[in-house]
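2024-03-11 09:14:02 INFO worker-7 job=invfold-0412 stage=load source=structure_tokens
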């Protein structure tokens, strides 16, 4: 009798994907081991492109290392939590104290924890499409069902509150808002955010506002804190040091709760329980929070005209404008561009095959649009972090590949026509 010794993964992973670090990224690593230089635009990792964490944050960690050798409170060290409170108050958020702030190992961990504390089997969460795929994955992993609401290209990738409300059922527990948006770079206008706040209040939905890119806005665009608009339901604002402060490796994020705290005590206690089970988040890096939030905001120079992030973004906008094949809604925030390929020019375009061809032939790694839970297959995402020269090279290679594909499609089409005519004769 033979025994099956296959170790099978959990069934809970069936509907979980994170292609940003998936098959294509693994193939890119193989090519690098073979000696090829790969331009990796699939992940928003500032350090990879030469950005440094502000010196004052590094010094704050060093100076407090002697106080970082033991566990801290499960919600985080008090100076870090208080700094988050002061930031929220400066932005017009009221009724928040350090007790409503949870520090985590990056926003990624907190996304998992806040959903795990909320969801029961079959509970629904409204998630944008396109989305940052961790939100969909975390809903599914925590026994819920992600219901995607469309953010349409023709509407600047801004959601329609009426469309969202039509998706609400008796099982809907929460709504996720990502603003400024990853992957599209859209920033949502105040009237839309106000309508979403009223919608959440009417249906008593928990609002999860992912604002990790809150200070990365361009050309006068405004990043409006959702917590300033939500009053009569619970609102969780999630942010951290990774992007604005270029400190991805520090793994420090926070969730701060505001709005209708009355009636949410049991939920917040459940979240504290989960925080306790993982003991605490990374202590040394928490000492950088107060310095980061209270110090000089160097991000403003980077996103202003002439700043590196601004100029890199401009290269992408200009490249799409002159391309025969690319279409782009100008990103007003974050560090990404969600680039479309004209389906009339390339009707057989497939984002995953294109991303693979671009990697194999041009040694550029991008994230195919399908990675972001969209139903269409003619988009891809790039980060705007590389310098302008590198991005010009990247989009030159993209144009070359698309031109070659268009030529092959045309020749194939002509061949098919000739064969058809011959058969007809």
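2024-03-11 09:14:09 INFO worker-7 stage=emit residues=425
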């Amino acid at each position: 009798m033979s025994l099956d010794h296959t170790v099978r993964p959990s069934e809970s992973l069936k509907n979980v994907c994170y292609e940003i670090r998936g098959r294509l990224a693994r193939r890119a690593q193989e090519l690098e081991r073979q000696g090829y230089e790969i331009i990796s635009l699939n992940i928003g990792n500032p350090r990879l492109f030469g950005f440094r964490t502000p010196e004052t944050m590094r010094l704050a960690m060093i100076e407090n290392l002697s106080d970082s050798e033991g566990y801290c409170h499960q919600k985080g060290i008090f100076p870090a939590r208080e700094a988050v409170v002061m930031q929220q108050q400066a932005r017009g958020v009221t009724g928040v104290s350090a007790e409503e702030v949870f520090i985590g190992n990056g926003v990624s961990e907190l996304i998992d924890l806040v959903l795990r504390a909320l969801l029961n089997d079959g509970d629904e969460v409204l998630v944008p499409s396109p989305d940052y795929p961790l939100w969909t994955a975390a809903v599914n992993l925590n026994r819920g069902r992600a219901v995607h609401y469309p953010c349409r290209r023709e509407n600047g990738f801004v959601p329609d509150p009426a469309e969202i409300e039509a998706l609400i059922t008796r099982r809907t527990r929460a709504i996720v808002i990502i603003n400024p948006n990853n992957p599209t770079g859209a920033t949502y206008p105040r009237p839309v955010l106000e309508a979403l706040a009223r919608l959440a209040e009417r249906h008593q939905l928990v609002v999860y506002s992912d604002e990790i890119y809150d200070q990365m806005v361009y050309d006068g665009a405004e990043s409006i804190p959702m917590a300033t608009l939500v009053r009569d339901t619970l609102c969780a604002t999630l942010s951290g040091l990774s992007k604005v402060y270029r400190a991805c490796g520090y793994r420090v994020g926070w969730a701060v709760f505001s709005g209708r705290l009355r009636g949410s005590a049991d939920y917040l206690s459940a979240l504290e329980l989960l925080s306790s089970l993982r003991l605490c988040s990374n202590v040394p890096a928490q000492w950088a929070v107060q310095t980061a939030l209270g110090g000089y905001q160097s991000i403003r120079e980077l996103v202003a005209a002439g700043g590196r992030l601004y100029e890199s973004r401009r290269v992408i906008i200009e490249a799409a404008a002159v391309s025969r094949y690319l279409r782009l809604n100008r990103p007003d925030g974050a560090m990404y561009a969600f680039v479309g390929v004209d389906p009339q020019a390339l009707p057989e375009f497939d984002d995953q095959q294109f991303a693979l061809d671009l990697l194999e032939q041009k040694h550029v790694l991008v994230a195919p649009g399908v990675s972001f839970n969209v139903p269409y297959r003619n988009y891809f995402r790039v980060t705007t972090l590389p310098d302008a020269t590198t991005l010009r090279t990247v989009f030159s290679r993209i144009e070359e590949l698309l031109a070659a594909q268009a030529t092959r499609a045309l020749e194939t089409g002509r061949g098919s026509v000739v064969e058809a005519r011959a058969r007809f004769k």
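2024-03-11 09:14:09 INFO worker-7 stage=report msg="The chain has two domains: 19-44+304-424, 55-294."
2024-03-11 09:14:10 INFO worker-7 job finished
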